[in-house]
TrEMBL record:
Gene encoding the protein: pheA
Gene Ontology BP, a term: L-phenylalanine biosynthetic process
Domain Chorismate mutase: 6-100
InterPro entries noted in UniProt: ACT-like_dom_sf, ACT_dom, Chor_mutase/pphenate_deHydtase, Chorismate_II_sf, CM_dom_sf, CM_II_prokaryot, G/b/e-P-prot_chorismate_mutase, Preph_deHydtase
Family matches, as Pfam families: ACT, CM_2, PDT
Name listed for the protein in its UniProt record: Bifunctional chorismate mutase/prephenate dehydratase
PROSITE patterns registered for this protein in UniProt: ACT, CHORISMATE_MUT_2, PREPHENATE_DEHYDR_1, PREPHENATE_DEHYDR_2, PREPHENATE_DEHYDR_3
Pathway(s): Metabolic intermediate biosynthesis; prephenate biosynthesis; prephenate from chorismate: step 1/1; Amino-acid biosynthesis; L-phenylalanine biosynthesis; phenylpyruvate from prephenate: step 1/1
Amino acid sequence: MSNTKPAVPETLPLLRDRIDSIDSQIQILINERARCAQKVAEVKLAEQGDVAVVFYRPEREAQVLRRVMERNEGPLGNEEMAKIFRQVMSSCLALEKPLRIAFLGPEGTFTQQAALKHFGKSIISAPMAAIDEVFREVESGAANYGVVPVENSTEGVVNHTLDSFRDSRLKICGEVEERIHHHLLVSPNINVDDVTHIYSHQQSLAQCRAWLDRYWPHVERVAVSSNAEAARLVADAGRNGRAVAAIAGEVACELYGLLKVSANIEDRPDNTTRFLIIGNEDVPPSGKDKTSLLISAKNEPGALYRLLEAFERHGVDMTRLETRPSLVSRWGYIFYIDFVGHFSDSECQAVIEELRARASEVRVLGSYPVAVL
């Protein structure tokens, strides 16, 4: 006769008690982590002084998030687990010193969405009206870091961001990639069938062109300064009984209390925008990095070929090449190049040394962790 006790069935009350117990342990550990973060701040202040202390370390945060994803066993996905830790880290960092982050505004833009994704929600948000204002805000020290868009997978490069690096000495400290989902939004108190105009940024209208041609071919499309501005205009119009719609993202929808009529209306499901984090400090290696260069080439035959040849010879993977007018001489150009590796790596140093011998100017815009989220 067996002495094995029958298994106790996991009833709903027992499962809820177990969840409560786990929640209690999680809360204790989060607060323990927060206390450690406070001690880190005390040590930094004691060693470096209040003026020189750097609380946010991009390479350290990238390493932590990568380890979170590597050791994750599910059932939560790697990215979901990393997002949870991202916010825990953001809250703990705010105990040391809240970061003030400038971004291309107004509030509700995809750039703000990218800023929150990269830094978490425990930051002081500072929306700016233009990309060059984001640069000035960081240069002046009024913001710790800035977030600006640099390229979209369907619409290409953001020239204004590249041009801003010509006269700025700011460094690229990080990158974040944001999958862009566009939604058709209206005010809750209007009839969708009465919509006469659809507002959005011209790039968003372009990214949803096929969908609009199919479902809203006769409604006028109006380009405005940003998707967030489109959402604000629709909210204001709705209060006055005017039936208009906006194409914008999730943050703008929540911020202005709009109703989502159709979700994910972008023509390409892989539509992604890459954003850069700009700051004043060089970032140490994280183990998986990318470097960006600004190069002013000599105006002579084969100049570009000789620049690119250095990457092949030293086995360095170049991932992007963009060209912009130099504004110094007629038909003079500046090249923006991204490649895999940190500028302190020996092979990267060799490439940069060769480039400096062959170009009028070579400036390292920054080495920074490859986007984790």
